[in-house]
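Researcher: Next sequence.
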Amino acid sequence: MTELDAVEGPLAGIRVLDLTLTLPGAMATQFLADGGADVLMIEPIGGSPLRTTAGWPGLARGKRSLELDLRDSDNHDRLRELVAESDVVLTALRPATAERLGLTPERFAAWNPRVVSAALTGFGARGPLAHIKGYEGLVMGKFGFYQSLHDATPRPGQAFISTPYASWGAAHTVVHGILAALYEREFSGHGQHVEADLIRGVATMDTYNWFKELVGQRWPGAFANMGGPWDDRARPQARLIYSLLIAPTKDGVWLQFAQIQPRLFKAFVEELGLTEELAKPKWEGMPDFPDVERRVELWEIMIEKVRARTYAEWEQVFDRNPNISAQGFRSPAEALNHPQLQHEGRVAVIENPELGPVRQPSTMIQVDGHALVPLQPAPRLNEYADRAPAKAPVSDAPAEPPAGLLPLTGVTVLEFGMMFAAPYGATLLTDLGARVIKVESLEGDEIRRLVAFPEAGGSKVLQGKESVAIDISTPEGREIVHRLAGRADIVLQSFRAGAAARAGVDAETLKAINPDLIYLNAPGYGTDGPFGGAPAYAPSIGAASGLALSSVPGAAGSTETLDEIKRSIPALHTGGMNQSVQADGVAALGVASALLLGLLARRRGRPVGTMTTTMLASSTVALMDRNLSYEGMPEIPEPDPELYGLSPLYRLYRAADGWIFLAAPAEREWDSLVRGLRPWIDLSGDDRFGTAAERRTHADALSGVLAQVFAQRPKQAWEDDLTLADIGCVACADEVPESYLQGDEGFALGLSTEAVSPVFDEYRRLAPATTFSRSAVKADSSCLIGQHTDAILTELGIGPDRIAELRERRIVG
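Model: Next structure:
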């Protein structure tokens, strides 16, 4: 028995066959391996292409390796043996390629009826886009995500996003499907097929932009300002610029403040010494000024006030004033030095036999303050390939598996949380059939009021939930939630450090009531420690974790002059607060994975202790392809300063009527690109581009040549012709993704679906992010504050007279 064989964890005994060679596949199986699953990677002869990337030692940790050429049908007998002893088989192939290679769900099911097969694609497993290559850049371009980053560069047009948001989204939505299908198998005895893709995965990540776009389209005059945070001259035009101020210190440290709530912004104004100044009639209506001059003047005044102190002086402010909070902008690697991660032991150094010590994030989930399992190094090629086959499983399952049932039927989640990052993790479980009871204050979750239109801010995160409004600071309110906890399967809470205990909804209290309870803490920073009490918002977590500088690596520019500072701020702001992809969505996907892991572990008789995920930790794990540190680490690709892309063969280009994204980075794709472009240019005779090394040397020249070619024709013509030649190229959407996805094209592709809301009547919401061959999913709308209070209290046996009394006393609403 090897050291790896001895590793235990909540997923111990689950065998996963990983047939993927892509980043989202590696992220998905890394999460499963971190949970104790036995993951066997099937690598092509010579090894996976991911072995040459900087993140390999972390992404492949704790897995086994077997070198096997799946293109050779002679090896399918061996593959059949492996599938027969596996619980999960994961692929990342376009549908036609899977069919050609014989790696289909039907074949896997014939080899092992209990296996959960999962397909992870770029554009979906069917439909008019399924044949397009599944590169992240193509998905992000096709659906408008590059439109959402246009403020990050002074040049006009779309801008490339290098942070792997779509890979993370696909990885965790396929994990959701896998864990839900394994949970369902515990009852039915049968496996089934799961599908997830990059577009649905990344589309989960916006917090409220879906409904902002919906309102803007349906009621064009609803908002005084439907524009972005910056005007066309990079001047502020939104109030969030001030409450989420970005500014450097005297000694050049860029800070991201987080003063969203009115009381926090008031404290910030006081700390800056601006209370008396801003009381003058000149600043009436602050910070919502109709004229740009006052907006810019206030912005400059606040920047200069921050700039008057050193970073050490600001740290003293944060220590003495809990209402003031800011994070410094860190690179992905620097983020692992964050004091909160260090305090929680969330950074691991794993000795790799070939590479030496490798510094990397620990498991996304901690249990009782520790990693889920002892972390093991990434395997050498063919390492651990000689493991004995598993015994055939014994099952009393019926001959005909049940169909059309929701996989999480009967599961109840009790949610104590605010805003998006934790609560949307529970929302994702509602699509799979879980009942989620959201406990709100009588005023409701503040996200409901985040957008200046009724319920637009919270409608996405409240989809599928039941709302019970209770004042849990009262003894009667606390008694009610304790009774609800006694009936629940899962409790999710995301309060700042100490708040859950003060409210009487901490793990110790609720597990004493219900010992079988699955309990997940999901705060911004932690349940204790130096930042446990700090307010957490997506921009501050984006700065602290490296998410922001991962997207805009050169944005933290000079701080010598005010003009230089003002040029940097819009890019830093957009890198950390992209309305479509940011830390809130990253964390929410991880929360859903943690909840499902806990649920499956309990059902399998391996219950875990109190689990904790945080926004900060999840965001660092999401950057594991670029935040490791070890000797001889390969170079991490970065976008060019103007944010076109990573290389001439993986970047945005202007077409005659908009933008295209070209994705042909692999050496084997060059000849296809040359042939595909031959009607417009012959690249085969240009000595500068004859080899991969020469193309890297003459990258600027190649970009220039291709830019001239692509500018000659419309974007859709390029997509049609190059896709027909099996070259990765898409016409980029000219609208933000939330508008595209709920529009007629997105609806026709099945990316949005119809729902009925108490506020918006009939509307289109995002379709469920994971689908199943046998189990059903659902797509409900949101709820109003306290909409289900009476019904839920009635379930507890509380009569109408008592409910009326509690309401009159403002204990329930």
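Model: Residues 165-188 form the longest helix (24 residues). The two ends are 59 Å apart (CA to CA).
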